[in-house]
């Protein structure tokens, strides 16, 4: 114990890494690009939904359905659960009962610098879908619950989901009451009757809310023109979106992310993410996850496309529904499907199926921060005006050609990089800042790049 107390805290060594966890993280990292690629154009809203359902055999509709059912929300949930699992693993590896304050200092230093990476991603790289900032804030909160038993973490999970549901409904009901008052006031005006000051305020408030909905597409067209211009014009759009996500919508993000992080922490402690379960239990989880998750996911995409496909339908829903329950359905289906997805990955990993690919995905997962920020660099340069200026130029299905190219690049260079370096460059910087000392970077002896069908071997420097 005395020897342990004198050891300097340091990053985990190669030989101590959990390979299946790295592979799952690599898949989640690549998978999240399936949604982040939406940054490349105006793919959403009632007008776009109308174009989709007008051609249900077209590639845009088919791609939308596949992405929405199998991946939308699921990859983000998986990434969030893995973040929680990674935090739990980090805490367990660094835990020192003789110096508990050291863990606090080290952990919050780690989260602080992750937050800085998030600000860099949002305000320098101009990637307004950044998740690092909110992950850092959520991670600071989740740390306070680190010593709860896994079962207790899962019991707290629905409480946070309920908080999110209540928060959604509070804002929804406020907007709905404003609209109902607006309708009442405008009806009185049409009859030539006087309205109260409160009703006048409601008219002004609803007109502002309605303008933000942008059914006319005026604001969308204005932003498109800016996003196809120079860096400062792009920044004028992305800064506003990023700032709203970090302030106005932060509570929504936290109530979405914290329960998933807690679930990830519990699943790590139970051995789910580390492949310690028996194969039959992964198979049971896969079957149950898909049987429960897919029907709800299919219903969700049907609702999005066929109910909210016009301004009239949208307003009719608001007028006749005092509550919204989408958050609950959304969380249930994504959690079940993620559990199914992970079970499938672990079963493939245990069976050494596609082992040549999984080994490379392990390398992608080891460089998750670097690869995440590299995705930001590539997609913003490809789509925005200061780069190749392809914003709003591609059909929805064509976005996934870009995704495929980025996937190939990251699967190719990640194992090659780790052959010569201990960490990805951003991981190295993050660790050096966290421990406040320069970490060794290069390997004294290069590792061995995996050949097809063989495990990825990396020699640990001593």
TrEMBL record:
Superkingdom of origin organism: Bacteria
Database matches in InterPro entries: Bact_Transport_Assoc (IPR052529), DUF418 (IPR007349)
Keyword Signal: no
Transmembrane segments: 20-39, 75-92, 104-125, 155-172, 249-269, 281-302, 335-357, 369-388, 400-421
Residue intervals of the DUF418 domain: 269-437
UniProt keyword list: Membrane, Transmembrane, Transmembrane helix
Name recorded for this polypeptide: DUF418 domain-containing protein
Organism: Robertkochia marina
């Amino acid at each position: 114990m005395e020897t342990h107390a004198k050891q300097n805290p340091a990053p985990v060594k190669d030989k101590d890494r959990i390979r299946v966890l790295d592979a799952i993280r690599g898949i989640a990292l690549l998978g999240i690009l399936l949604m982040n690629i939406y940054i490349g154009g105006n793919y959403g809203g009632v007008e776009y939904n109308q174009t989709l359902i007008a051609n249900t055999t077209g590639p845009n509709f088919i791609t939308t359905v596949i992405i929405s059912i199998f991946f939308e929300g699921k990859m983000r949930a998986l990434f969030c659960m893995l973040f929680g699992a990674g935090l739990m693993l980090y805490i367990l590896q660094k835990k020192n009962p003789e110096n508990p304050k050291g863990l606090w200092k080290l952990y919050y230093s780690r989260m602080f610098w992750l937050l800085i990476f998030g600000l860099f991603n949002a305000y320098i790289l101009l990637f307004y879908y950044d998740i690092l900032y909110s992950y850092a804030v959520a991670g600071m909160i989740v740390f306070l619950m680190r010593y709860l038993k896994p079962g207790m973490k899962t019991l707290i999970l629905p409480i946070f989901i309920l908080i999110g549901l209540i928060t959604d409904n509070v804002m929804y009901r406020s907007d709905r009451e404003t609209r109902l008052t607006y309708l009442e006031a405008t009806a009185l005006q049409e009859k030539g009757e006087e309205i109260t000051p409160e009703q006048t305020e409601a008219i002004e408030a609803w007109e502002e809310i309605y303008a933000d909905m942008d059914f006319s597409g005026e604001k969308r067209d204005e932003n498109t023109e800016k996003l196809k211009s120079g860096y400062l014009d792009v920044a004028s759009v992305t800064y506003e979106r990023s700032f709203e996500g970090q302030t106005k919508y932060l509570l929504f993000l936290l109530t979405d992310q914290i329960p998933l992080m807690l679930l990830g922490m519990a699943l790590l402690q139970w051995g789910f993410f580390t492949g310690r379960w028996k194969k039959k239990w992964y198979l049971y989880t896969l079957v149950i996850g898909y049987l429960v998750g897919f029907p709800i996911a299919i219903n969700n995409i049907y609702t999005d496309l066929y109910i909210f496909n016009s301004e009239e339908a949208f307003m009719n829903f608001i007028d006749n529904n005092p509550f919204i329950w989408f958050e609950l359905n959304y969380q249930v289906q994504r959690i079940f499907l993620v559990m199914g997805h992970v079970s499938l990955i672990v079963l493939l990993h245990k069976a050494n199926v596609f082992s040549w690919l999984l080994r490379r995905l392990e390398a992608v997962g080891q460089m998750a921060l670097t690869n995440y920020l590299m995705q930001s660099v590539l997609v913003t340069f490809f789509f925005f005006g200061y780069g190749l200026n392809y914003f709003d130029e591609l059909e929805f299905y064509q976005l996934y050609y870009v995704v495929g190219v980025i996937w190939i690049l990251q699967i190719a260079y990640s194992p090659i990089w780790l052959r010569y370096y201990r960490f990805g460059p951003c991981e190295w910087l993050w660790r050096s800042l966290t421990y406040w000392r320069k970490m060794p970077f290069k390997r004294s002896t290069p590792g061995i790049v995996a050949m097809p069908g063989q495990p990825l071997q990396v020699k640990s420097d001593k």
